[in-house]
Design goal:
Dihydrofolate Reductase, subunit A; 192 residues; single chain; 32% strand; alpha/beta
Amino acid sequence: MTATYTFDVFSSLDGFGGSTGDWGGYWGKQGPELLAHRLALYSQDQRMVFGAKTYRDFVEMLAGAGDDDEVYDPWVTKMINLPATVVSSTLTGPLDWPDATIAAGDAVDVVARLKKESDVPLRSHGSLAMNRALLAAGLVDRIQVTVFPALTGRTGAAPVLAGATDFDLELIESRTLDGRTQELIYRPTLHP
């Protein structure tokens, strides 16, 4: 049996994973329904997979946050405490993450192995460059994009799928959270 791999990402409507502007986390659009849904999602057994850059970004963000900061929303605390694999040829242990291991090598090879060996689903939140490579290799089973109602054309950073190859997307699930934020889950297939 092969474990399911989900590329889970936040995006503005115009396709950016972040912003250099003064939006705040979640583009200032988080609400109780979104936060409860994320908590339920991350309360399930699964293994996180991060690229080295995203791992470093998370560790830096968490180190600079206060206890009451939105960085420590309950779903983020759940994510931090899930087992994790960090794909990196440059990091050395021990990692500043409760249950994380380093897997050296190419992300395509590492995730292909994890999919064969894992008895729980795999999920990656962020890790844009790594997930674009995994998409191209046919290893992403689901793209879960949470689209926040914001346009960040002037301040947008980290285009989510810039440079990705062409894919057809089959919508397998969707929901509206807090009456404004869309969660869309797609099954990607390489476009011929």
